[in-house]
């Protein structure tokens, strides 16, 4: 903005310059009011290259700052007010996002915490990211916000371009089509629907019509139109909370109790022993038993299994990993039995594991049939490749909005920034550094850090903690916002802009809590 | 902007003024690039009062303009490209939203159509609305877009204020709390979950804990933890397309076939005969039989019914209406049998029926237990009043995003504009005018317009058409984008800024098609 002013003021007399500067200043004040300060001052622009020493965010603080109890007095008052109209029992912190920056989240009392939970693993680039601020202020965004289309009926003319500019440019290998959606649950359920329609299409034979009986019985929620078919998931898996996705979620009773569900099967998921190198034989046996369980269920369940859904790393359920060999075996079994493989990358996708998609670690011989995404994408949907996964007729897979182009623009910018800053490789590197630090700590504090896992998986690192909830709480007092999962796991979910100096702060804070 | 310039240029010499104007022009060009033209020119600001003669949008065209076949050559090329990556079989028109304005939608070939379908009834204020453009360019929006919170865990400090400033200010009478969501399907399914948890809470007795058997069986999708409970819906009802909502959807087989569903009951919904005044006795009998069917199913279904979900006007299924008396009867039956009443206002809500909520027409003695919303709200969720509808523990009703604050800001602005321009009353008036016109046409063309319905329901008007799909297609050739529903209905879903002169254009176009 100043450079524009300089260029245009060359031919102006001194008084005009002064006046133009005044106008400019008025405009700057206006802009400051309209944007976070960094957009006006340019002080916060991320650097252009990956370096473990130079901060991505130039005006990030040098460390956390805890001034009050959390929640402090202002937060407590705000929570009380909010609770009258909105359930606050799951509230963790009440936040001031205008004061949050990069890897640091500010609460309402202006405590500034290093955030390695990142809105349940859903913030990729940090708070008040300038590239996101730029797209958020663009004419494309304005258009997407104020003219929300019913995408399946009235897509904008540039929808192909929008999809190709980002969301499809990072499509998993072998998958070149997308169905856009609203949330992880929505993405998974639409994927399940695609799998069921594909299953029946195959049963019926290509080109066959629906029978009258199918059409009429479907309206009564009865067979054959509404068939008994299943999606298989794994114990401790989490795939969402709506009725279909919740039937495949097996994380905790609190997610499921009192809600009717489909009688779908769950297979055992490997529970590996750590350190992996010490338990190689046992773990191989465990994985092979789990695969046998998968095959047993597919061949013996009371109804056909149309698809298996699996997370590359079971997240909500407790951060459970399996080896590439296990997933290759799973792909082989699904191919053998004509069952689709749906990989749920809602939490693992978009770079955090040191690959753009976590299943890139597996080196599968054939790609998964469907890959779902959400969270760090800031939008949701599923990718597929087989054109037969488009249902036989229009309107079978459809809904009013089919996603939100505004959020797709955000994802596209995230993708560009990940590319520009090489954030996937950066996260692999930072993750390795962080893992080594935690490995050292686990040797010093073997009771506090058990079953450390996530080596070679970027910053997707977790461990079991004997007093997990107390640990998470204490971490706030030393300036870190950190999350848990499963019964006893601490899960790290820093952003992709998390750097070595943040890892040092985190490691120091953890040790401080252990020593206290 | 120009007025700002005028004010600040008073003390400047002529040359400075010229230069300032040049700078201003550069800025205007910049702004024109960044915003639709109206934002820079101010030519498009909506008027401040409701008048049937003065247009809300000053720069709307005087009528539609059809220059090519629809789809025209540019659209056809774009559809071909899009189809490679995104299913286009449900595509209606490929649109240029930057060229759309107010009630007029532009396609990619710059055909400009009067839009009385409005993105499947989801656009309330018209395309490129200046008030929405203003909030979309605000610092609050920037913050909401780039710092997307996990609302249940980390709400922003101003979340209470945001909710109270709009979304809660229009909460249906008696309902003062909200659970925010992503889409109509999501809103309904979360409402169903709330109903099931409430049901089991009542069964268990207040304060009772879950049993071990409930906890463990829920993880296996088995009773008693995963109970056999039902949501009752009505024949031809539409409540969404995810697994739970789809089990209550009974509109068309194409929505349901091949998808597993819950064995939930559907009651008969009244099929009234028109004109209503001629069939008063028959219609009263029909409604009372339908209510008897509701009570029969509640008392005889193989499992308990936790809630009844109903649309005030069945929309997707064919625009079927019932009288306030029917809904009062339904409320009485649900109260008598301890069944919750969920009113699905996804399509009927936010003003189109001449009341802000369609169920305001009913004058219920006690409010519904839950009211869901989406579409014209541009965001989604459910309202409730009874504090016991908050589940017994945190995290039972939860998901990562729990809505999108960016879209909530849009809804809040829609609410403000509806209030400022008195658009609910305006829609009641315009609807009455439009209905009268259609009534006249139905007498001239009794074969073409059958069962005209929606009198006194704002612009929520429909009729049965003998060759509906052909009619909808022909309407495009005379410059109107119009939608259907059910097997044979034409459904009108104009925006809230639809005025008498638009009604005249619409009536003329309809007659033109009838005469052709």
Automatic annotation (TrEMBL), chains A, B:
Similarity field: Belongs to the class-III pyridoxal-phosphate-dependent aminotransferase family.
A GO MF label: 4-aminobutyrate:2-oxoglutarate transaminase activity
InterPro entries cross-referenced by the UniProt entry: 4NH2But_aminotransferase_euk, Aminotrans_3, Aminotrans_3_PPA_site, PyrdxlP-dep_Trfase, PyrdxlP-dep_Trfase_major, PyrdxlP-dep_Trfase_small
GO CC terms, sorted: cytosol; mitochondrion
Known EC number: 2.6.1.19
NCBIfam families found in the cross-reference section: GABAtrns_euk
Needed cofactors: pyridoxal 5'-phosphate
Keywords for the protein's UniProt record, in alphabetical order: Aminotransferase, Pyridoxal phosphate, Transferase
Catalyzed reactions: 4-aminobutanoate + 2-oxoglutarate = succinate semialdehyde + L-glutamate
GO biological process, one term: gamma-aminobutyric acid catabolic process
Name of this protein: 4-aminobutyrate aminotransferase
Superkingdom of the organism of origin: Eukaryota
